[in-house]
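Quick one:
INPUT:
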């Protein structure tokens, strides 16, 4: 009997509201920032799942909720069959070996007073994976895996370039042999030529170690390069989700269409023009009623202002929440 591959990560109806209190001291709650508002998705073993959207859409918050760097307001996070939200401190610490994160700013994520070798060795020491000469050897191996010579072990983060620092961050994430890595805008702070090197490195490591990635970004060109499936977030909601090729060739949601229209085309004869959205992203404290995108949507109808669209499968594996479909 053929076994069905189960998701490595299953997120259902995930919600994160940040309460707003009145006055300088903690007092009564007068509102909340609806950062993530009922999203659901899965990530399969070895898959790269892209999560895209404007700043303030809730992408990074989603990544931190999955790792329990932030506590969710409600919803379910199931990782490799375990309820992440139900784990105690000891269980959660053990889970840290299986879920890691690569941060956006490679300099801010490294301790400036620690050498590169100490920074990479730290997770190995914390999780009691190696010590003594073995620790030193594993640290050198990790540096070489990410394309850095072992001589970098004696250097400090300030002595490295941005791309080299991000390689150190990747080495730290790999140290504990995780199954899932949350990549939170891992190349947005790097030069374009360095971005390509880091993306290629991540793909090579995925093939070598069987890693799954949650790849968070606002650049759809970068996401297209590395992702298998892509979800588009807007103001705390996922508005579209599909396989990469489906999403880029046939975007269904007007927000996805506007994002893709802004991606530069390598074809000099391309006549596509960017779809310019009206106004700014609304406040997550008081999101628009009905479809949250209707205040900026060029196709908004009366129903969009009154009724929240249903999340549905429009084509095989292609989901969207839009009254146009």
């Amino acid at each position: 009997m053929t076994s069905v591959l189960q998701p490595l990560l299953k997120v259902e109806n995930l919600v994160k509201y940040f309460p707003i209190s009145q006055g300088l001291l903690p007092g009564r709650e007068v509102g909340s920032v609806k950062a993530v508002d009922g999203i659901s998705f899965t990530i399969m073993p070895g898959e790269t799942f892209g999560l895209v959207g404007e700043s303030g859409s809730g992408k990074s918050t989603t990544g931190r909720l999955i790792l329990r760097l932030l506590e969710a307001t409600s919803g379910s996070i199931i990782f490799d069959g375990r309820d992440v939200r139900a784990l105690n401190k000891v269980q959660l610490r053990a889970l840290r070996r299986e879920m890691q994160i690569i941060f956006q700013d490679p300099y801010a994520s490294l301790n400036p007073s620690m050498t590169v070798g100490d920074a990479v060795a730290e997770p190995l020491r914390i999780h009691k994976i190696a010590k003594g000469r073995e620790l030193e050897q594993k640290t050198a191996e990790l540096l070489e895996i990410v394309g850095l010579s072992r001589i970098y072990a004696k250097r400090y983060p300030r002595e490295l370039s941005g791309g080299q620092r991000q390689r150190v961050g990747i080495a730290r994430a790999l140290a504990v042999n995780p199954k899932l890595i949350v990549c939170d805008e891992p190349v947005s702070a790097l030069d374009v030529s360095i971005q390509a090197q880091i993306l290629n490195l991540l793909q090579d490591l995925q093939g070598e170690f069987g890693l799954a990635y949650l790849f968070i970004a606002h650049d759809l060109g970068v996401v297209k390069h590395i992702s298998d499936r892509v979800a588009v977030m807007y103001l705390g909601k996922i508005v579209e989700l599909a396989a990469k090729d489906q999403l880029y060739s046939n975007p269904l949601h007007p927000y996805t269409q506007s994002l893709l229209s802004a991606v530069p085309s390598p074809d000099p004869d391309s006549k596509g023009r960017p779809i310019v959205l009206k106004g700014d992203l609304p406040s997550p404290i008081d999101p628009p009623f009905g479809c949250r995108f209707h205040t900026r949507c060029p196709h908004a109808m009366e129903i969009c202002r009154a009724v929240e669209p249903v999340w549905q499968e429009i084509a095989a594996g292609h989901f969207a929440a839009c009254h146009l479909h």
